[in-house]
Write a structure and sequence with these properties.
Length: 111
């Protein structure tokens, strides 16, 4: 059974953004960047964007939309995620590292 953890969600339908309170320990600048990135995504593409950690600590982008949402840009979604993975690589990698250390306990072994 896999254990996934939601980092944040942006919802174009409800015009809401959610950051998992377990990640309040992230620096404010990183939390702000996440919010900007996710909200801009849903403003541009529509639908719902979730950033979710898999059981190995990899950060995945998950998208969905309501049935018959003709305004949701499926091609734009793929392109925008690819753009974020390239342009925000350092940010995303640092968040994965934070998750692996703080939540999975990696890198804390005694030498």
């Amino acid at each position: 059974m896999s254990k996934e953890v939601v980092l944040c969600v942006s919802n174009a339908y409800q015009k809401k953004y959610y950051l998992n309170e377990n990640f309040n320990g992230l620096p404010q600048t990183i939390r702000d960047e996440l919010k900007i990135m996710c909200v801009l995504y849903t403003e541009d593409v529509g639908g719902i964007l979730e950033l979710v950690f898999d059981e190995d600590g990899n950060l995945d982008f998950r998208t969905s939309c309501k049935e018959n949402d003709f305004f949701y840009d499926e091609i734009g979604s793929v392109l925008k995620i690819k753009q974020y993975r390239n342009e925000r690589r350092e940010l995303l990698e640092s968040i994965e590292t934070y998750y692996r250390i703080v939540f999975l306990g990696e890198g804390l072994e005694e030498e």
